[in-house]
Backbone:
């Protein structure tokens, strides 16, 4: 069997003693969409930046290995890493409004991205750029080519960002909250586009989001992160049917589900008390300070991630042992 | 598209129009100096102390040694503008290099370069300039270099601040994820975005450089082999009470040039500064 597209083994990202990501194991197969979910400050974006080795200073990445298609990225010299960025891994960001250079035309930015990694003539790059704009379903791509970014809407800009990201046919596309800044209708279009590009170009997609609605519809697998740890991993169907970890349950509980007739009219949504920050220095389970099911032993040892079903990992022995007695969600 | 917008804003602005036209006249005058007055302006051509209008051949009169004031003004424009623009170019080169390195890389390099910049800023620039020129032999080239060397900290600080702010912008981060090199990100992605305030400051710097050169010449620290507006004022100072026009005419030339540059600078600020909301 082929090696997985991306495999993180025991990866830790630390900022002067504070660990933003701790001992993370993550596997992403070819052609798969893996969603990373969690609230702000859980280390989702840091994980994404770690994969392309662009963690802001003074952050340091340590761990056993970070394999991209079998190649370990951790010991790679910076020049070799730079060659991989854009060609093997590319990334799109949350804010399409600020992710494009305001003083360069859209077309030129795509042309530059193509010519960074490929020796092609300007004319060829231009043709390719217009094809890319067409690929991301921008109407009248030749006209869009000469526009400055501020003339485009948010959705259009995000499409341009995607065009730039896939310009050199990367194997892995990291999308860091790609739709958070967009209208709901545009959100669906962008995610559909990512989905179809993924199939067309055979990419793996690492989708970072805090929107559980996005996860159900577009992800093949979900990893829930809390305070830099992966606390649960499953397919969306399993995760939504049988969430194990109290944090996952809390997240699901704090979401409106119009399909399940749970709307804002039914009273206040339950919330998870406290914030991620309050958990930073705790020993034992990182979620213990905010957990409603907390037991004394939770505060002593960090619970290991254990297999609780087919393709379902969770890190909460309390819920596992008491599973029959835990009240059902909703 | 954006460029024509800026140009349009400039043309609609009366300040820019007046400043630009004045500057154009001065530059044309400097360019045509050897056509208008082919002889050396320091030649004694007529009797001394002829007032302006006294002889049609010498419309601005002659100085205490019988040199043509008009020829001096025209040739002096050359020196003033040359020193003004060349020293500003040096200043920009140094300032952008230091500011960009400090703002882009941050860390210890930023600390070191910022301290260096502050060190230069603690010394009053004109005193520093006098010391430098006194050490070096005063020629047009050394004066230009010295003015550039004393005035780069302003640009360095401006560029550093812009680079620091832009460095964290998402489009720069996006450029990094595409595998662009540091040099390319700094020069192609960040620098064009950092330029508007630098362009505005540049016009003021040219004006300051011209003033500095005049002040040096006035103190007798200018290049003795060329006639500049400052030298002319210096010569006239000794006869200020009897022949005040000898100081007033080159003084007016400086005032007009500096005014033109400031008008252009202000108009550029209006056109390029996004915070003023001229959209």
Residues:
């Amino acid at each position: 069997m082929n090696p997985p597209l991306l495999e993180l083994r025991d990866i830790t990202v630390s900022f002067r003693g504070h660990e933003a990501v701790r001992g993370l194991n993550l596997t992403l197969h070819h052609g798969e969409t893996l969603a990373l979910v969690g609230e702000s400050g859980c280390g989702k974006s840091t994980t994404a930046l770690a994969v392309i080795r662009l963690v802001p200073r003074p952050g340091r990445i340590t761990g056993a290995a970070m394999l991209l298609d079998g190649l370990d990225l951790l010991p790679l010299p910076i020049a070799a890493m730079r060659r991989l960025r854009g060609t093997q891994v590319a990334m799109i960001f949350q804010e399409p409004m600020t992710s494009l250079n305001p003083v360069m035309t859209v077309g030129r930015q795509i042309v530059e991205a193509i010519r960074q990694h490929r020796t092609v003539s300007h004319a060829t790059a231009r043709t390719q750029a217009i094809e890319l704009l067409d690929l991301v379903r921008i109407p009248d791509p030749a006209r869009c080519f000469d526009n400055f970014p501020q003339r485009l809407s948010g959705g259009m800009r995000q499409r341009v960002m995607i065009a730039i990201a896939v310009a050199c046919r990367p194997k892995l596309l990291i999308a860091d909250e790609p739709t958070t800044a967009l209208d709901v209708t545009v959100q669906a279009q962008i995610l559909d586009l990512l989905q179809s590009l993924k199939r067309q170009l055979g990419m793996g997609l690492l989708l970072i989001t805090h929107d559980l609605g996005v996860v159900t519809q577009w992800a093949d697998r979900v990893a829930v992160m809390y305070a830099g740890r992966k606390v649960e991993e499953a397919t969306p169907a399993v995760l939504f049917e049988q969430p194990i970890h109290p944090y996952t349950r809390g997240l699901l509980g704090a979401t409106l589900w119009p399909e399940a007739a749970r709307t804002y009219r039914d009273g206040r949504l339950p919330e998870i008390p406290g914030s991620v920050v309050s958990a930073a220095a705790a020993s034992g389970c990182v979620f213990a300070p905010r957990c409603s099911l907390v037991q004394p032993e939770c505060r002593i040892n960090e619970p290991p991630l254990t297999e609780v079903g087919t393709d379902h990992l969770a890190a909460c022995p309390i819920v596992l042992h008491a599973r029959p007695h835990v009240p059902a969600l909703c | 598209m954006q460029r024509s917008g800026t140009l349009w804003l400039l043309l609609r602005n009366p300040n820019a129009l007046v400043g630009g036209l004045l500057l154009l006249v001065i530059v044309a005058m400097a360019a045509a100096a050897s056509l208008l007055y082919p002889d050396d302006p320091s030649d004694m051509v007529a009797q001394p102390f002829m007032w302006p209008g006294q002889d049609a051949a010498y419309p601005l009169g002659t100085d205490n040694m019988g040199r043509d004031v008009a020829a001096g003004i025209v040739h002096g424009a050359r020196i003033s503008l040359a020193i003004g623009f060349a020293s500003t170019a040096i200043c920009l080169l140094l300032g952008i290099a230091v500011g960009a390195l400090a703002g882009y890389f941050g860390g210890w390099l930023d600390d070191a370069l910022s301290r260096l910049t502050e060190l230069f800023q603690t010394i009053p620039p004109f005193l520093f300039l006098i010391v430098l020129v006194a050490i070096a032999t005063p020629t047009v080239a050394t004066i230009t270099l010295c003015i550039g060397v004393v005035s780069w900290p302003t640009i360095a600080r401006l560029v550093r601040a812009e680079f620091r702010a832009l460095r964290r912008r998402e489009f720069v981060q996006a450029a990094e994820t595409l595998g662009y090199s540091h040099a390319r990100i700094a020069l192609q992605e960040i620098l064009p975005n950092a330029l508007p305030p630098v362009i505005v400051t540049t016009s003021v710097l040219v004006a300051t450089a011209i003033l500095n050169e005049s002040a040096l010449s006035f103190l007798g620290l200018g290049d003795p082999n060329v006639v500049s507006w400052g030298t002319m004022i210096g010569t006239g100072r000794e006869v200020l009470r009897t022949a005040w026009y000898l100081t007033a005419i080159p003084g007016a030339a400086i005032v007009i040039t500096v005014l033109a540059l400031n008008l252009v600078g202000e108009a550029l600020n209006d056109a390029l500064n996004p915070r003023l909301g001229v959209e």
About this structure: The interface with chain B takes residues 52, 54, 57, 82-87, 89-95, 98-104, 112-113, 116-117, 148, 161, 164-165 of chain A (CB under 8 Å).
